[in-house]
């Protein structure tokens, strides 16, 4: 390995998936694979997760959903929640992709598709986040339209769902109350979809009443713990990715590492620690193509430094994120696609 590389341990992904499954069962698990599987590489992650028996994949957009469908074959469910236009919506239906519908425009487009398959729809209620989702005041109207469309054989309402902030229990409780009201209105109108889903990683683990039939999990499957939250060990998951880079130059006081902001490292991470063969060392500078850290005894060109990995490596995506007020996912998804992914456990 000459430059920086993202080492992705698929056996750990498999371990984490087992842990997630055990933590949320009997709810089913949707593995969220948006943003190139949080930077880990979509194809390898999906292939391994499929082997591990994952039955649902959360792909975000139609292009990703189409790729996932290609990788997993006809059986598993693939869920997307954004379609840019009617052509994309139509493609999603053709590929037997479940579609999260959070606005009337997409709903109407789906009812307009004729021939071929029946659209599988998950109606999204806005429970407070106000990004995509039908407002509570418009919910009864959407439900009535969905009942009519289902009766006409145009679509099938497979799910009702929402997304929550998972930043405070109080706020999440209020969101869940709104979700419950939306479910009750739908039930009164005759809709009893098989899949109710509300929570992502954090609430799925911590709060059983948020699990319903299906949980949408990204971060914890990749071993990324919440900023300010419990440690990986407490969650029972381990980071899947480790970003390493070589020592390129050893100076009197500093050591230069061959990775920089051009590779996707936030330049604001100056002052953080990274893992060296001699233990954690402070980052003193970040340029486009390199990082400087405080020197350690015996440092040699070619030694490898861990930018982020497991806690015992010196830094995790989340520990870096915490020092600049963001979340671990943001650190992971920024690793440039030009940084090679090297897989362990590929089979
Ligand atoms: C990203 C995302 C998730 C997964 O969230 P994590 O916190 O990474 O588990 C779930 N649902 C939706 C709608 C998302 O956009």
Most strands sheet? 8 strands, mixed
Overall pLDDT confidence = 96
Bound molecules: pyridoxal-5'-phosphate
Shape: elongated
Strand content: 15-25%
Computed structural class: alpha/beta
What Rg do the Cα atoms give? 22 Å
Count of DSSP E strands?
Answer: 16
Which residues sit in consecutive blocks of at least 5 with pLDDT less than 50?
none
Portion of residues within helices: 25-40%
N- to C-terminal distance: 21 Å
InterPro entries: Ala_racemase (IPR000821), Ala_racemase/Decarboxylase_C (IPR009006), Ala_racemase_C (IPR011079), Ala_racemase_N (IPR001608), PLP-binding_barrel (IPR029066)
Protein name: Alanine racemase
GO molecular function: alanine racemase activity
Pfam families: Ala_racemase_C, Ala_racemase_N
Concise overview:
With 347 residues, the protein is an alpha/beta fold. It contains twelve helices and 16 strands.
Describe this entry's structure for a reader:
This protein is of the alpha/beta class. It contains twelve helices and 16 strands. It has helices spanning 10-24, 34-38, 42-51, 62-72, 86-94, 104-112, 136-151, 169-188, 201-206, 232-235, 317-323, 328-333; strands at 5-9, 28-32, 56-61, 77-82, 98-101, 119-124, 155-161, 195-197, 214-217, 241-250, 254-257, 273-276, 279-286, 291-294, 304-308, 341-344. Strands 1, 10, 11, 12, 13, 14, 15 and 16 form an eight-stranded mixed β-sheet that branches. Strands 8-7-6-5-4-3-2-9 form an eight-stranded parallel β-sheet. Strand 4 (77-82), helix 5 and strand 5 (98-101) form a beta-alpha-beta unit. Helix 7 (136-151) packs parallel to helix 8 (169-188). Bound molecules: pyridoxal-5'-phosphate. Pyridoxal-5'-phosphate binds at residues 32, 34, 81, 163, 200-201, 216-219, 329.
């Amino acid at each position: 390995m000459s430059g920086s590389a993202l080492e992705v341990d698929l056996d750990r992904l498999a371990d984490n998936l087992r842990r997630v499954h055990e933590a949320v069962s009997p709810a089913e698990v949707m593995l969220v694979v948006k943003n190139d599987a949080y930077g880990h590489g979509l194809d390898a992650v999906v292939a391994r997760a499929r082997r591990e028996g994952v039955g649902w994949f959360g792909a975000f957009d139609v292009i990703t959903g189409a790729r996932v469908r290609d990788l997993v074959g006809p059986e598993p469910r693939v869920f997307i929640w954004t379609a840019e236009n009617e052509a994309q919506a139509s493609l999603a239906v053709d590929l037997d992709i479940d579609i999260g519908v959070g606005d009337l425009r997409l709903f109407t487009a789906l009812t307009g598709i004729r021939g071929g398959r029946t659209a599988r729809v998950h109606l999204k209620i806005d429970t407070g986040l106000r990004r995509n989702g039908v407002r509570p005041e418009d919910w009864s109207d959407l439900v009535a339209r969905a009942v009519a469309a289902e009766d006409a054989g145009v679509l099938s309402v497979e799910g009702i769902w929402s997304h929550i902030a998972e930043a405070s229990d109080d706020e999440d409780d209020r969101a869940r109350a709104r979700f419950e009201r939306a479910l009750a209105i739908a039930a009164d109108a005759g809709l009893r979809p098989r899949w109710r889903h509300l929570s992502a990683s954090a609430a799925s683990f911590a709060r059983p009443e948020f699990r319903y039939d299906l949980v949408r999990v990204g971060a914890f499957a990749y071993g990324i713990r919440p900023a300010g939250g419990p440690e990986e060990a407490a969650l029972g998951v381990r980071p899947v990715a480790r970003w390493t880079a070589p020592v390129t130059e050893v100076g009197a006081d500093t050591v230069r590492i061959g990775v920089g902001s051009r590779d996707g490292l936030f330049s604001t991470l100056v002052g953080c620690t990274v893992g060296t063969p001699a233990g954690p060392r402070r980052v003193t500078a970040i340029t486009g193509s390199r990082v400087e850290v405080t020197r350690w005894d015996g440092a040699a060109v070619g030694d490898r430094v861990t930018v982020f990995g497991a806690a015992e490596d010196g830094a995790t995506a989340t520990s870096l994120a915490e020092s600049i007020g963001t979340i671990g996912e943001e650190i992971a998804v920024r690793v440039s696609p030009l940084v090679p992914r090297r897989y362990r456990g590929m089979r």
